[in-house]
């Protein structure tokens, strides 16, 4: 189904708790200039909401939603409605007889446009067998019959169970031809996903013309940002 959608610039980015180089993270997001930024591993310490809002202002955006360490920033808050969901995660085995809790997971969704599109950001956990159930929880933020994009750090290479689940839900892997995203210093694995429903055209936007070279990307985070342009399947993406 073709979708007549105004172009959207979306960034998905694991910022490693802003713990590497805050000024570099700020530079990356500012130069990407997204309409929507779906961020993973945002910090969760005391005073987080105030700090997240202040950080959003520093990159010319607005903090509109957060669930655990996943947050949504938007350039125009009037344009989007938001939803959030905590993701249940199981215990994870560290050694033969030792199990430990994982940090809580979360998914956020922004919905807007005409016709409406839902953009979901999520961060899946480290337990291999649990990730499909986590993705199922995130997908509950979608709206039946409406265009959908799901992005985030899925902690799994293409071909794994969550990638297969996304395909069975009709979501295409639109960055399959692009390179790995982790680790930023020497990328070897594409674990940051961009999945979309039919009727959408998505193109990855090259970061080099934006002035984002290897040095600043490595200083900013252990993941590379993924910046894409979204439009209807009948329109070009700038």
What do you see in this structure?
This protein has a single domain (8-232), classed as 4-Layer Sandwich (Deoxyribonuclease I, Chain A), CATH 3.60.10. α1 crosses α5. β8 (105-112) and β9 form a beta hairpin. The protein contains 5 helices and 14 strands. The radius of gyration is 17 Å and the shape is globular. The protein has helices spanning 22-32, 48-58, 131-139, 161-168, 214-220, and strands at residues 8-14, 36-40, 62-67, 70-74, 80-87, 92-95, 98-100, 105-112, 117-123, 148-153, 172-173, 192-196, 200-204, 226-232. Helices cover 19% and strands 33% of the residues. It is α+β, with helices and mostly antiparallel strands and 238 residues long.
Write out key terms for the chains shown.
14 strands; disordered C terminus; six-stranded mixed beta sheet; 5 helices; 238 residues; alpha+beta; Endonuclease/exonuclease/phosphatase domain-containing protein; 33% strand; Deoxyribonuclease I, Chain A
Helix content: 10-25%
- Indicate the proportion of strand residues: 25-35%
CATH structural class: Alpha Beta
Strand order of the largest sheet: 3-4-2-1-14-13
The number of E-state strands comes to 14
Give a quick summary of the entry:
By secondary structure, the protein is of the alpha+beta class. Helix content is 19%, strand content 33%. It has one domain (8-232): Deoxyribonuclease I, Chain A, CATH 3.60.10.10.
């Amino acid at each position: 189904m073709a979708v007549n959608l105004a172009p959207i610039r979306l960034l998905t980015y694991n910022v490693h708790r802003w713990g590497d180089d805050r000024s570099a993270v700020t530079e990356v997001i500012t130069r990407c200039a997204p309409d929507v930024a779906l961020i993973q591993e945002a910090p969760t310490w005391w005073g987080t909401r105030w700090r997240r809002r202040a950080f959003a202002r520093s990159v010319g955006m607005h903090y509109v939603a957060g669930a655990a360490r996943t947050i949504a920033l938007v350039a125009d808050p009037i344009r989007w409605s938001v939803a959030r969901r905590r993701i249940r995660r199981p215990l994870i085995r560290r050694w033969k007889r030792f199990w430990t809790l994982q940090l809580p997971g979360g998914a956020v969704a922004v919905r807007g446009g005409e016709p409406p599109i839902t953009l979901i950001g999520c961060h899946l956990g480290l337990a291999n067998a649990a990730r499909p159930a986590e993705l199922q929880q995130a997908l509950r933020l979608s709206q039946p019959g409406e265009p959908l994009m799901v992005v985030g750090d899925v902690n799994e290479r293409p071909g794994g169970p969550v990638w297969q689940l996304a395909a069975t839900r009709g979501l295409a892997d639109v960055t399959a031809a692009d390179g790995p995203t982790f680790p930023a210093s020497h990328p070897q694995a594409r674990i940051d996903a961009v999945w979309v429903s039919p009727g959408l055209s998505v193109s990855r936007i090259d970061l080099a013309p934006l002035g984002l070279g290897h040095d600043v990307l490595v200083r900013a985070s252990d993941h590379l940002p993924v910046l894409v342009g979204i439009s209807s399947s009948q329109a070009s993406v700038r």
